[in-house]
Amino acid sequence: MNTQANPSRAERAAATTPSQYSRTAMLLHWIIAVLILVNVALGLSAESLPDDWVRPVIDTHKSIGITVLGLVLLRILWRASHRPPPLPRSFPDWERGAAHVAHFLLYLLMIGLPLSGWMHDSAWKGAATHPMRLFGIVPWPRIGFIMNIDPAVKEHLHLHDRFGTLHTWLGYALYALLAMHIGGALKHEWIDRKSVLKRMLP
């Protein structure tokens, strides 16, 4: 007779639950993080640069934004089919809930910010006559129904300015959420001694 107890369902689930994100998830996370930080620097510095630098910097900012949008959508698809590691069991329920809400809002802003920038660029009065190229190489379309609105209507509705304002405020919201995200990870690492950062490190 086998006296060893069979593992419970909870024990079997714990044994198959990953303790880290997959390598693909890690790669996407850190590439997106670096691109966002670069784009923040480009966006905030554009107005203080010499005139002949402004257009290349803005074009690079646009290209990185579109790249981030594509990578974030890819990350969402990957996460939908790959179970992420759970937060430590010692975390209280409210903290787990807050972390899930923060991640949802991060994804929402990482999609909304480049989309609003794309809308802002598509509403530009020169969009139809100045084709966009990602990193100066790959042709990229504007949002057709916005670009093709009658110029007088665009001017009357101040679409370019309105989308620009939306893009700016979404940017501020993303900066604030990123600061909380990074601050929370460092707090768990250095103060609580309950590392969540190692889940995203190889």
What does this structure look like?
It is a single chain. The chain is an all-alpha fold. The protein has one domain: Fumarate Reductase Cytochrome B subunit, CATH 1.20.950. The chain is 67% helix and 3% strand. It contains seven helices and two strands. A two-stranded antiparallel ribbon has the order 1-2. Strand 1 and strand 2 (138-140) form a beta hairpin. Helix 3 crosses helix 4 and helix 4 (93-122) packs antiparallel against helix 7 (159-190). It is elongated, with a radius of gyration of 22 Å. The two termini are 43 Å apart. The model has no long low-confidence stretch (mean pLDDT 90). It is a multi-pass membrane protein. Belongs to the cytochrome b561 family.
